[in-house]
């Protein structure tokens, strides 16, 4: 049993997931510190780059656990600029792990991704299925897992990799926005064409940010009860939904029809992608709670209010 975890550092806590996570950690009584390239209007933030080794050594200290979320996240961009992804994601993670080792912080839980699997050999995907990323983004996530696992084994740390599928929810702002749900909501709101690759039959696993935050809270308990190990989990709803279904839920929540424009399916885009989450259920005590229809309604309401206020 590790001593109880009280002080938590979050990297990337000014991003979409990080903002939700910091609020939940604070509410649960943890002492938190955010490190990000940009400020978070609600939390004091150390403005720093995880690529800066010296700065990480200075800042990654006096904590019990690091939630490492900071990352570049665009698969398409990573194909054009692989070195940048290695610098931010992999070297950044190495800097943090080194600072943790030197400053005596034992536990890291980090944002891995469904992208570690590449094209699945079967669906639902199980954690020990083949991992063969199809872009440098996924490669960095897999390499980050391997790096963390090597630190667990070499330095007696605890490591937890949470492999999320398609994360969504209120406050999902990315620049550029390549994620389907916020893009569709924006296009429907602005009466623009909704661009869909294929006929809308592609199915994905959309997981609400609140469920992901909950998985992080459960990861703290796992680190306390089973320290000194490397754990890795699919964080998935196990309920894939088609593009046509999600567009239908947005239309329903917005009271408005989408003007759908179909393009040929993208090569290599699997028709069905989702994961088995029984390991997370059994070992992490986590299961997804938010129904997609309700989650999309909440997200649409957030964006409509946000744009009305901005207008
Ligand atoms: N959004 C998804 O669908 C999804 C799915 C699977 C995994 N993930 C992973 O979850 C994590 C969070 O995703 P998100 O959607 O909140 O992304 P986001 O882009 O909203 O947040 C990432 C944050 O990291 C910060 N950051 C990036 N590079 C940094 C650096 N070098 N130094 C310091 N800070 C840096 C950014 O400023 C940003 O605030 C990422 O690691 C991502 O790869 C996301």
Keywords, please?
311 residues, alpha/beta, Rossmann fold, UDP-galactose 4-epimerase, domain 1, 2 domains, 7-stranded parallel beta sheet, two-stranded parallel ribbon, 42% helix, 19% strand, binds nicotinamide-adenine-dinucleotide
Characterise this structure.
The structure is a single chain. By secondary structure, the protein is of the alpha/beta class. Helix content is 42%, strand content 19%. The strands form four sheets. A seven-stranded parallel β-sheet has the order 3-2-1-4-5-6-11, with helices on both faces. Strands 7-10 form a two-stranded parallel ribbon. Helix 5 links the parallel strand 5 and strand 6 (158-164). The termini are far apart. Residues 11-12, 14-18, 36-38, 49-51, 69-73, 88, 92, 111, 113, 164, 166-167, 174, 179 line the site of nicotinamide-adenine-dinucleotide (NAD). Nicotinamide-adenine-dinucleotide (NAD) binds next to helix 1, helix 4, strand 5 and strand 7.
Q: What's this, in brief?
A:
This protein folds into 2 domains: 7-168 and 208-235, NAD(P)-binding Rossmann-like Domain (Rossmann fold); 180-204 and 239-273 and 290-310, Alpha-Beta Complex (UDP-galactose 4-epimerase, domain 1). α2 runs parallel beside α4 (82-103), α4 runs parallel beside α5 and α6 (180-189) packs across α10 (292-310).
